[in-house]
Write a structure and sequence with these properties.
Acts as a co-chaperone for HSP90 and is required for proper folding of the myosin motor domain. Plays a role in sarcomere formation during muscle cell development. Is necessary for normal early lens development. The chain is an all-alpha fold. 63% of the residues lie in helices and 2% in strands. It is built from 51 helices and three strands. Strands 1-2-3 form a three-stranded antiparallel sheet. A hairpin with a 5-residue loop joins strand 1 and strand 2. It is flat, with a radius of gyration of 44 Å.
Length: 1014
């Protein structure tokens, strides 16, 4: 047995070599004392021994090694200690010609290395050398982990041990840890920069790392790995979650979605759906949604594979997150089947396009079935209604085809009416959320508005009449409740249709009868129906005559807070039937204030449920038409904040009531202009003349606005704008836009509005909604953009979305104030960056801006000229001035001669930048009008230093443009003007002006037209 010891050996091969054996391992190293580590040593070969165990020489003392050093058998021509290149193949199949290989040429072939082993005078080896040598031996035995460990211990002792670093690099490379190997060889190259082996190894490892990264991050590899993790039940939870999120992200990318699709991804995603685990099912649904987006072929295949009934069953679950994700999947499928395909298909003109109408009709049919299924959760029903709201009615009434609406009316209107007529307190009620009935009312309204002719509307009305009259049953009070609730729901949708249904025999009588019922549910439904029925003045008058006493009786006798507050709202609505007309008060003086006080009390009572408190806001929405009520309300800060908190809750049916209340408080509703002659005529003919309340004057309105801002109205409005698009109707958006415009009226308040997120919230209101709402929101944006830093008011890319609404306000059909403030806003934006100037140019705002430069109105002309002054920095705008056959440059020159200082300042600034940008424009300026020289001289002598400075810059540009033109200027009185200005002593205010004049004189000296006086 060979003992574990270290010995120094004088080798026959001419170098100092150490042969050691430790725990059965043999080690051969070169001791390179006095040599460079990379220097080649001479190695000699001995004749091959028959037993293949070594050389013929014996060790000192006549002993031979007990067994050959593993890995060193075989003949070789030359061994190189240290990191040098070798030829041949190593045991691991690596090319030994690559740098860093320790394997000798012809390793494993017959041959030997003759060694002398001496046991005399043994000397211990230092720890550094022991670990370094151990690393080499371990590498020879392919024990790369041990080799790396030994080398690491050597490096710990001496961090500059280049042999150990290189050996660890090789071991780590074999172990596949290329990044760590790269760091080691990089360290080696730093220590010995001229060593070509290190440089070659660096290049080789870099190539290997890049290839490994390419494979590792290739889409195919990522997809496969993620599915393996997700489908492996033994995978860790965090790994599964990460894989699911990565799969979702990948599915949203076109390349990733295609790879998933091609690699049997749909089948694997179906397996995830089968797991029934919510997090995996959710990931699968979101991935499928990404794959369907904008790709008709994939959407069709996925729809056939997953099946619409399964998709609807997933959407029907109680989990809100799951229901919303499946809704997005269905929306993506519908968009892909009905919209434009993102994928460009070659030869698509001749291609057969599959008809998707059948699939779309099938989806619509299943969604309608979901509305009346008891197995569907309230969340699922809401999402089904959302999808129908978004996809059935035409988005543009100019489109002739409304076949989807006709199909839904024929096959699904009764189902929608059933949802509208649900009474939550009845045991037979379907699962609902707070928003379900409102969503159904909105859908009925959209379907009714989408009908094209009277026969279609008559058919719609007949279906509603048959459904309601079919529900009336003297023997079944629950059916009667459903009928009245249906009428109430329709009144919240297509109001004209609801009014016609109120005229049906027995409807109003049934409402009054239910009010007198002893059952609280009957009273609740009846009072709500009366509230909605009394919107029209004629109906309200009928109810005031026949039902007010009954409502008062219910209010006094009932102990149920829900009924009490609804009765109160009914009284509020009847009390406000006269609107803002101070002379048409329905109740006695002070009655409305008492009702409002009770509403505010309920609103602040957090012990009452949200749905009940919502009715308090509904009551205030009517009562705040009275100026006394709204003045008291804005002073009640707790009530205001309670209303704002309700607006931010999940129950979004309150949005319209909150918006209406705020419109009333800010007086932002439309007010007809009072013509004195017509007022006198009305009085003469003894007709009623509307009276304005004293507290509706401008001063009171401004005070209410300040109190609303202080209470935090902007944050509430910003939250309301983010609501679901089906709940946030175009009418509600218009109301919000009106409120924003009223709040932005005072320039001092605009900073507060921006700080609380008002600028960002206005952008969607200006882009979507009614025409009136978009104009109001755009006007509010213009007010903010005119005085605010765009980078703060509209951070990031949002600022580019502001341009289009502002440009729309330049239409000559808009009023002058809107034109003026839009120009101010565009001026501010155009001064920020060339990208914004380019955006304004692409929105075709230049013709409108030029048009207002011709305007007779001084302020409009000044604002347009200031905007053009900023826009001329853009190259495309400059090209418009360079083009022949137009008077743009002439207009700017003539505007420089106007008497208005601000107008002169803007025009001179534009002219200075134009003449500085193009020499051709300098020559053109002298040709467009004969007054150019006189105007230039006036600018150079102007009292306003800013205008004078611009004039001198124009003069310098003309002097620098052409020698002949410069000569003409020098021969005129301009030289005398320049001399006088240039001789002035420059102070802080005049420094720029004097410097500009002196530069003009220096230019004249360069031409040789003038000489300095010694």
């Amino acid at each position: 047995m060979v003992q574990s010891h270290w010995m120094r050996q004088e080798n026959l091969l001419g170098g100092g070599w150490e042969v050691h054996s430790e725990a059965g391992w043999w080690k051969l190293t070169q001791e390179c004392s006095g040599e460079e580590p990379h220097r080649r040593a001479d190695w000699k070969h001995c004749p091959q021994r028959e037993n293949g165990r070594g050389g013929s020489g014996t060790a000192e003392g006549g002993r031979e090694p007990a067994f050959p050093a593993p890995g060193l058998q075989g003949r070789h021509k030359e061994l190189q200690p240290g990191p040098e290149a070798h030829q041949g193949q190593g045991p691991a199949g690596h090319a030994l010609s690559e740098p860093g290989s320790l394997w000798p040429e012809n390793a494993g072939s017959p041959g030997c290395l003759e060694l002398e082993k001496s046991v005399s005078n043994p000397r211990p080896m230092p720890w550094k050398d022991r670990n370094s040598s151990g690393a080499e031996a371990a590498q020879c035995q392919e024990s790369y982990v041990q080799a790396a460990s030994d080398a690491s211990r050597a490096i710990d002792i001496n961090s500059s041990d280049i042999k150990a670093l290189y050996r660890r690099c090789q071991a780590l490379e074999h172990l596949g840890k290329l990044d760590q190997a790269f760091k080691d060889v990089q360290r080696c190259a730093t220590l010995e920069p001229r060593n070509q082996n290190f440089q070659e190894t660096l290049r080789r490892l870099n190539t290997s790392i890049q290839e490994k990264l390419r494979v590792q991050f290739s889409t195919d590899s990522r997809v496969q790995k993620m599915f393996e993790i997700l489908l492996d039940e033994n995978s860790e939870a965090d790994k599964r979650e990460k894989a699911a999120n990565n799969l979702i992200v990948l599915g949203r990318e076109e390349a990733g979605a295609e790879k998933i699709f091609q690699n049997n991804g749909v089948a694997l995603l179906l397996q995830l759906l089968d797991t029934k685990k919510p997090e995996l099912v959710l990931a699968a649904v979101r991935t499928l949604s990404g794959m369907c987006s904008g790709h008709r072929a994939r959407a069709t295949v996925i729809l056939q594979a997953v099946r619409i009934d399964r998709i609807c069953s997933l959407m029907a679950v109680e989990n809100e997150e799951m229901s919303l994700a499946v809704c997005n999947l269905l929306q993506a499928i519908i968009d892909s089947l009905s919209g434009e395909d993102k994928q460009e298909i070659r030869g698509k003109e001749e291609a057969l396009v599959p008809d998707t109408k059948k699939d779309l009709k099938q989806i619509t049919s299943h969604l309608l079935d979901m509305l009346v299924s008891k197995k569907v959760s309230g969340q699922g029903r809401d999402q089904a209604l959302n999808l129908l709201n978004k996809n059935v009615p035409r988005k543009d009434l100019a489109i002739h085809d409304n076949s989807r609406t006709i199909y839904v009316v024929d096959n699904g209107l009764r189902k929608i009416l059933k949802v509208v007529g649900q009474v939550p307190d009845l045991p037979s009620c379907l699962p609902l959320t707070d928003n379900t009935r409102m969503l159904a009312s909105i859908l009925i309204n959209k379907l009714y508005d989408d009908l094209r002719c009277d026969p279609e509307r008559d058919h719609f009305r007949k279906i509603c009449e048959e459904y309601i009259t079919g529900k009336f049953d003297p023997q079944d009070m629950d059916k009667n409740l459903n009928a009245i609730q249906t009428v109430s729901g329709i009144l919240q949708g297509p109001f004209d249709l609801g009014n016609q249904l109120l005229g049906l025999k027995g409807v109003m009588e049934m409402m009054v009868a239910l009010c007198g019922s002893e059952r609280e549910t009957d009273q609740l439904v009846a009072v709500e129906a009366l509230i909605h029925a009394s919107t029209k003045l004629s109906r309200a008058t009928f109810i005031i005559t026949n039902g007010v006493s009954l409502l008062k009786q219910i209010y006094k006798t009932t102990k149920n807070e829900k009924i009490k507050i609804r009765t109160l709202v009914g009284l509020c609505k009847l009390g406000s039937a006269g609107g803002t007309d101070y002379g048409l008060r329905q109740f006695a003086e002070g009655s409305t204030e008492k009702l409002a006080k009770q509403c505010r009390k309920w609103l602040c009572n957090t012990a009452i449920d949200t749905r009940t408190r919502r009715w308090a806001v509904e009551g205030l929405a009517y009562l705040t038409l009275d100026a006394d009520v709204k003045d008291d309300f804005v002073q009640d800060v707790p009530a205001l904040q309670a209303m704002f908190e309700l607006a931010e809750t999940s129950d979004k049916t309150i949005l319209y009531s909150v918006a209406t209340t705020l419109v009333n408080c800010t007086n932002s509703y439309d007010v007809k202009e009072v013509i004195p002659e017509l007022v006198q005529l009305a009085k003469f003919s003894k007709q009623h003349v509307p009276e304005e309340h004293p507290k509706d004057k401008k001063d009171f309105i401004d005070m209410r606005v300040k109190r609303l801002l202080k209470a935090g109205v902007i944050s509430a409005l910003a939250c309301m704008v983010k609501a679901d698009s089906a709940i946030l109707t175009d009418q509600t958006k218009e109301l919000l836009a009106r409120v924003f415009l009223a709040l932005c009226d005072n320039p001092k308040d605009r900073g507060t509005i921006v700080a609380q997120g008002g600028g960002k919230a206005l952008i969607p209101l200006a882009l979507e909604g009614t025409d009136v709402g978009k104009v109001k929101a755009a006007h509010a944006l213009a007010k903010i953009a005119a005085v605010s830093n765009p980078d703060i008011a509209f951070p990031g890319e949002r600022v580019y979305e502001v341009v289009r609404p502002l440009v729309s306000l330049l239409d000559t059909q808009r009023d002058g104030l809107q034109n003026y403030e839009a120009l101010l806003g565009l001026t501010n934006l155009s001064g920020r960056s060339d990208k914004l100037r380019q955006k304004i140019f692409k929105e075709r705002a230049l013709p409108d801006i030029e048009n207002y430069m011709f305007e007779n109105h001084d302020q409009l002309r000044q604002a347009a000229t200031e905007c053009m002054c900023n826009m001329v920095l853009n190259k495309e705008v400059q090209e418009r001035f360079l083009a022949d056959g137009n008077d743009r440059l002439k207009l700017v020159v003539l505007l420089c001669g106007e008497d208005d200082d601000k107008l002169q300042n803007a025009a001179a600034g534009a002219l200075a930048m134009l003449t500085g940008a193009h020499k051709k424009l300098c020559l053109k300026m002298t040709q467009v009008t004969t007054q150019w020289l006189e105007i230039l001289q006036r600018l150079c002598l102007h009292d306003q230093l800013s205008v004078q400075h611009r004039g001198l810059v124009i003069a310098y540009n003309l002097l620098a443009a052409d020698a002949e033109l410069a000569k003409k200027l020098v021969e005129s009185e301009l030289l005398e003007i320049l001399t006088v200005v240039g001789k002035q002593e420059p102070d802080e205010k005049k420094a720029e002006v004097v410097q500009a004049a002196r530069e003009c004189l220096i230019k004249c000296m360069d031409y040789g037209f003038i000489k300095p006086v010694c």
